[in-house]
């Protein structure tokens, strides 16, 4: 088999752009509210009524007409008579006359004639009467109709992640079902004759397949369904058959391994046989320089490196935003921040370097063994330090860019 040995690297930003620019939404589907968590809102969410839709008391207390409290002060008490008593969910039939009040609980509708609420703590109760020692302003201690949202107001645009707060909003407006971006079904194919199943005993030269389960978990974290595929051996024909089957059964396929220039790295030849358009096959980054993305028909083929740290990073940088866009998300990228490097990093960075790292809110430090083949630092890290290409010698105390991992939601800006 003849594979090209020289590839032209693209920058990380260019690679991300090439993928996200090509991806289209995979459609929409209606799901019950309880199943909508973690999906992407396909329609803007507009308030169908004012919230709250009636003026209510935000406190346990007494509803009064504020004008009746005029003159109350530290040295002058004003007295009221309680004419009704309501809890939340009840509506008083009383219409307050001069120096009358309705005793009401938090959330109860304000009775007619009242325009302020005296908290229990602001009153001295004596049977059916109470006194106050301060004057109340109109609308004091009220939760006004529409103060949170007004009918017709667009509250959450389409493309946003449905998190618990959005679920609360949907429930507020009575959405028993929600229109969401369809989740793509993703195939995972781990290639390599050295790979053993997770429950296999170790034998010389072989290793357990850690990338497959890792990618499955990266997908699960995004709520995306997946199917696992196996090849019998590192045989081109066998691998091609499996890729074709996976393409027929899924919306996109993630492979790991076999994408470099080795004698058994069949993926480049498979892309050729499929007539796939290769968007890029080398990225100016470490790890993950061999990351390849190709499109065959309307199926995306993500060729991630076999090296675990490179595989992990390739998923987070390229696969994740693509899948989010397939679901119709408008925020595609990992949230990023800056942090103070907590230890020296002396290595040169000929290309953009992504270092698995531990970020504590202020400082960030490499999460340990930092080779492309490392597994330990993926397990220990919660973030990626990003060091630009063409730099060297970062010292403890330097400020560096950090991408945050493990959040379900993206940001709308590719900022690196
Ligand atoms: N002559 C060159 N050799 C290599 C180059 C190069 O430019 N010229 N690039 C190196 C870089 S960088 C990387 S990264 C690797 C990428 O190779 P592949 O993506 O084709 O991956 P494999 O060769 O199949 O495997 C690499 C490594 O990872 C282990 N592996 C593979 N699959 C898994 C898995 N599912 N779970 C755990 N570990 C896995 C595999 O055993 C190898 O050790 O190529 C360099 N070589
Ligand atoms: O792709 Mo390799 O992981 O750059 O080291």
TrEMBL record:
Q: Does the keyword Magnesium apply?
A: yes
Q: Start and end of every MoaB/Mog domain?
A: 187-325
Pfam family of the protein (one): MoCF_biosynth
Specify the pathway. Answer: Cofactor biosynthesis; molybdopterin biosynthesis
Q: Which SUPFAM superfamilies match?
A: MoeA C-terminal domain-like, MoeA N-terminal region -like, Molybdenum cofactor biosynthesis proteins
Keywords per UniProt: Magnesium, Metal-binding, Molybdenum, Molybdenum cofactor biosynthesis, Transferase
Which InterPro entries did the record assign?
Answer: MoaB/Mog-like_dom_sf, MoaB/Mog_dom, MoeA-like, MoeA_C_domain_IV, MoeA_C_domain_IV_sf, MoeA_linker/N, MoeA_linker/N_sf
Which EC number(s) does the record attach to this protein?
2.10.1.1
Q: Which Gene3D superfamilies match?
A: MoaB/Mog-like domain, MoeA, C-terminal, domain IV, Molybdopterin biosynthesis moea protein, domain 2, Molybdopterin biosynthesis moea protein, domain 3
The keyword Transferase is annotated on this UniProt entry = yes
Top-level taxonomic group: Bacteria
- Cofactor(s) the protein needs: Mg(2+)
Q: Which reaction does it catalyse?
A: adenylyl-molybdopterin + molybdate = Mo-molybdopterin + AMP + H(+)
Tell me the first and last residues of the signal peptide.
none
Task: Provide the function of this protein.
Answer: Catalyzes the insertion of molybdate into adenylated molybdopterin with the concomitant release of AMP.
Family recorded in the similarity comment: Belongs to the MoeA family.
Name of the molecule in the record: Molybdopterin molybdenumtransferase
Which species does the entry assign this protein to?
Answer: Paenibacillus rhizoplanae
């Amino acid at each position: 088999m003849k594979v090209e040995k020289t590839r032209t690297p693209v920058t990380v930003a260019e690679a991300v752009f090439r993928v996200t620019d090509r991806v289209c939404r995979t459609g929409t589907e209606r799901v019950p509210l309880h199943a909508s968590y973690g999906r992407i809102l396909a329609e803007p969410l507009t308030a169908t009524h004012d919230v709250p839709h009636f003026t209510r008391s935000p406190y346990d207390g007494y509803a009064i007409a504020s004008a009746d409290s005029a003159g109350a002060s530290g040295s002058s008490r004003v007295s009221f008579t309680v004419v009704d008593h309501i809890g939340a969910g009840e509506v008083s039939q009383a219409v307050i006359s001069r120096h009358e009040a309705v005793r009401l609980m938090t959330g109860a509708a304000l009775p007619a004639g009242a325009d302020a609420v005296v908290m229990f703590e602001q009153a001295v109760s004596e049977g059916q009467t109470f006194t106050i020692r301060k004057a109340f302003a109109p609308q004091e201690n009220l939760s006004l109709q529409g103060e949170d949202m007004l009918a017709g107001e667009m509250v959450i645009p389409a493309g946003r992640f449905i998190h618990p707060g959005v679920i609360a909003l949907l429930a507020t407006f009575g959405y028993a079902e929600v229109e969401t971006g369809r989740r793509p079904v993703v195939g995972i194919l781990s290639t390599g004759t050295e790979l053993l199943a997770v429950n296999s005993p170790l034998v010389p030269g072989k290793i357990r397949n850690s990338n497959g389960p890792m990618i499955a978990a990266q997908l699960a974290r995004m709520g995306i369904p997946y199917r696992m595929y196996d090849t019998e051996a590192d045989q081109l024909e066998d691998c091609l058959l499996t890729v074709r089957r996976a393409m027929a059964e899924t919306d996109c396929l993630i492979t790991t391994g076999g994408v470099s220039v080795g004698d058994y790295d069949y993926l480049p030849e498979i892309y050729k046989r499929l007539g796939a358009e290769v968007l890029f096959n080398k990225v100016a980054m470490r790890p993950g320089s061999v990351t390849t993305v190709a499109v065959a028909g309307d199926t995306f083929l993500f060729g991630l490196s076999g090296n675990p740290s490179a595989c992990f990073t390739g998923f987070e940088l390229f696969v994740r935003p693509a899948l989010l866009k397939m679901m119709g998300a408008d925020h595609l990228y990992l949230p990023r921040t800056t942090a103070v490097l907590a230890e020296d990093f002396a290595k040169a960075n000929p290309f953009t370097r992504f270092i698995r790292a531990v970020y504590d809110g202020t400082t960030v430090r490499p999460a340990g063994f930092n080779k492309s083949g490392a597994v330990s630092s993926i397990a220990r890290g919660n973030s990626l330090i990003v060091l630009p290409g063409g730099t060297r010698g970062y010292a403890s105390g330097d400020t560096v860019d950090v991408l945050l991992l493990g959040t379900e939601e993206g940001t709308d800006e590719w900022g690196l």
